[in-house]
Design a protein that fits this description.
about 200 residues; alpha+beta; Alpha-Beta Plaits; four-stranded antiparallel β-sheet; two-stranded antiparallel sheet; globular; binds 2'-deoxyadenosine-5'-diphosphate; binds magnesium ion
Amino acid sequence: MRKKHAETKQEANNNKMEQKTSALPETKMTVQQTLVLIKPDGLIKSLTGNILTELSSTDLIIVGAKIVQVTRELAEEHYQYLREENFFDELIKYIMGEFHTKRVLALVYHGENAIDSVRKVVGATDPEKADPTTIRGKYGRVTRAGVFENVVHASENKKEAEREIKLWFRPEELVYTLYPTESKKTTKVEFFWKE
Ligand code: DAT
Ligand code: MG
């Protein structure tokens, strides 16, 4: 009787796991996802098309995309590891769009070796040091105030990618269930288009 109970519980667990990952067609170890942000300078300069074209050389697929008005809370959470840097305040203003436009295009790219493939096309952090054939090398600039207007963000490693994707996207905004999910009952007010 006891064994049967244990099996049932195990089965239930397995079913739950299956449900959570069933939408992911790839199982290879090197398949990854990464967060890309087209920053406010990229948008105001109408570089979206160029940047997407550059990124298409990676053969990765876009599994999530949205335009975001970045709040201070989101900006500070995203760049939390730079909190102690002297450029932090300027960086927060920049990503919130105070110098350009209050919009960021957030994208999730998925596929083989996604993190490094995207970083390679994106180029080095400092646009002046970035290879001139990369996105940052082509389109970035360093302002007199010392802000790196480097056009795009790309996750640095697997841990950061997961943290960032979970910060910017809700599970239902991605076409694949990339990470385990849980359901919670909420009582929040939602908006719909008026009939
Ligand atoms: P990356 O965006 O290449 O991952 P990062 O995570 O070290 O680089 O820094 C995040 C952003 O902060 C970067 O895109 C631009 C800005 N930044 C980093 N170092 C800087 C510096 N020394 N001066 C000005 N801005 C800087
Ligand atoms: Mg980084």
